[in-house]
Amino acid sequence: MKPAEINQGVFVELMATQTRKSAVETFVNKEHMMNSSFESEVLVEEYIDTVNSIQRELELASLLEELIMLHRAKNNIRDIKISLVREYIYVRMNCYRPNIATKDVRGIVGTTSQYGDNVEALFANADFMEKAKRKIEGQIDEMIQVKQNELNKFYGIPTYSSSY
User: Fold this and answer.
1) What does the alpha-carbon distance between residue 35 and residue 32 come to, in Å, rounded to a whole number?
2) Which position has the higher pLDDT, 110 or 29?
3) Where are the domains of the chain?
């Protein structure tokens, strides 16, 4: 599986986020910008009613997809990128985040005074890479916990995590 494929969902793309309208809203709004007929207006109203009647299920599917994608990311921590910013060593990896433009998780693992500034040497340093993996895994675990709490709060579905 390519790293970016971890972030691909179906229902998550239908739902609105802080940065974009829902796919349904975008689709319905197009009708207002086009020449429409009585027939198309009736169909749009039926479409809106249908979507509204399954809204809870769409939200649940979206939330479940987010959790699945987070678990996929956690279970596939391997394509880690390293970058140096001033004296800090950052690591990042692809990870679905609905309200963030960049679809990755990032963290500071250490400083160049601790590990040096040779990126290739950092990749070869098993202790550093294990620390980087734990850092990313910890951040993903935090996101999983937030989503699990959301799932429990809004839907009453019990979820379990081996790390808690």
Assistant:
1) 8
2) 110
3) 3-155
Burial class of residue 81 in the structure, from the number of CB atoms within 10 Å of its CB (0-12 exposed, 13-18 middle, 19+ buried): middle
CA distance 73 to 84: 23
Long-range contacts of 76-80 (CB under 8 A, 24+ apart): 76/1, 76/3, 76/6, 77/133, 77/136, 77/137, 77/140, 79/3, 80/129, 80/132, 80/133, 80/136
Distance in angstroms (rounded) separating the CA atoms of residues 55 and 60: 9
pLDDT digit string, tens, across residues 40-75: 889 999 999 999 999 888 888 989 999 999 999 998
Its pTM surpasses 0.70:
yes
The three-point CA angle 73-78-84 to 5° equals 105
pLDDT, tens digit, 9 for 90 and up, residues 99-126: 777 788 999 999 999 999 999 999 999 9
